[in-house]
Amino acid sequence: MSFDRAVKKVSKRLSAYERTMAAQDTAKAMREIADPAALAEAAKLWREAQPADAARPSHLEALRLAEARRCLGKLHLYRATAMPSGQLSRELAQGLGYLAPIADRPGAVPPAFKQLLGPDADPDQQGGLAAEMLGADADAEDGVFADAVVALLTESVAATPRSSAGYVTRLSNLGAAHLSRYHRTGDAAELDAANELLDRTVAAAGRSDRNLPLYRFNLGSSWLDKYLLSRSPVDALAAAGLLDQALDGLPRTSGLRRDVMSMAMTAHRACVATVAGSAENLERALKLCRQLLETAEEGTGDHAKFRTELGVLLLQRFLDGGPDLDLDQAVESLREAVVATPEDHPERAERLSRLGTAHRRRYEVRQTAQDLELAVAWGEQSVAAPCARPADRAGHYSNVGLAYRERYQWFGEPGDLDRAVAYGEEAVRIHPADDPDRAIALHNLGTAYQRRFERGNARADIDLAVDVAEQAVAATSPGHPMLAERLAGLSRAYEARHTLSGDPADLLRAQRAGNGQRP
Question: Entry's InterPro entries (predicted)?
Fold first, then answer.
């Protein structure tokens, strides 16, 4: 069988290494284990060991996987000994990662490494090595170091008394490793683990702990990540509060201060987007943004980034009842950010889209054709530009669709309405089904279908308008600030279809939606 042949090859290499080392022929042993063919053999063994269903392996598959872990763990740990003294090795991290799930089995961990993994491990050595590996993880393209840190610190934290001087640091590092794994994999379980561990870290650290601001920063970061998944006001407020506390506790000269300020600004802006958002959150975000902009050198990427943030915040303050000056300053700040952003920059699409939105908002207030044309032009450029996050492109399509819809209402050109529908359809198509912002694209598309129905009286358009409006309402959580508007849009769609068909059920549905009831 393929697995048997693969495991035999690796085992033979391991045995040859061990015999040669026992004979004290270190140079020959190192050549044997450092042979590039060893990695190809290892990769084949790991492939052959994978169960048909990873969630429910059979008894035989579980035995094969454990044997592969034992062989590959040893191989990488032996290869780590071939590295220059003092050099932190990926081989060591890989070996620990393979062996961690089976470390409690007799003979699984080579004697030379028993202080690092398994029942006889030394928590202090585990904690020290994990701290080194966590530093290396920041520069790694994969998660090999983070995986090793989790393996080491899961054991170390469990074996370290809470009164020990190293307990809080190890707890914090374990949370940071889980957070790193979440950022690489998007696995929500990793984020939950990080959040729980980092919360325990803050609770365990005394008020006099000089690292308390760092611990609060890490926990605030994890709450902000949770908000980006949930769009929950509770998560946004938790992030903002912790990041403000972290900032207050940092010395003015701290190198971490700028990162904390930037994340705190983002958290306060998130609060503004929720039910719990307030003018206080908006003003706090603006204050932090201006401070960051003052310290950013003009012409740098940071300067363009904070110019964008300032424009977004000023536009939001205007929409919340701020002065007309905020609107003009928002447009200008976003324009300067776009001008300063290279054509191939991954954030260019986002900045173009935001500038187009600002012009559309100014058109809605002042009814100036120039703003409307610029909204369309910048929007078109945004969907053609490089995009850092493919999921964001759906929002760019939705925004340019809105601009075309506005232009249709100004000039009455049917082609603009068809473009509004086409861009809206593309926005919905590429929006991830579980993205909370998908409801925005659905609502915008439903309105575009209804406008086209009003022009041509086509039954297909009003049926589509009802369908996507229902989806928009279904995707909107109770208490969301836009729920009333989306229910009103659904009510209008039902009523329009009733006018066409005379179906009394649509009239009843329109009344219920108009009264705030979901379908």
Answer: TPR-like_helical_dom_sf
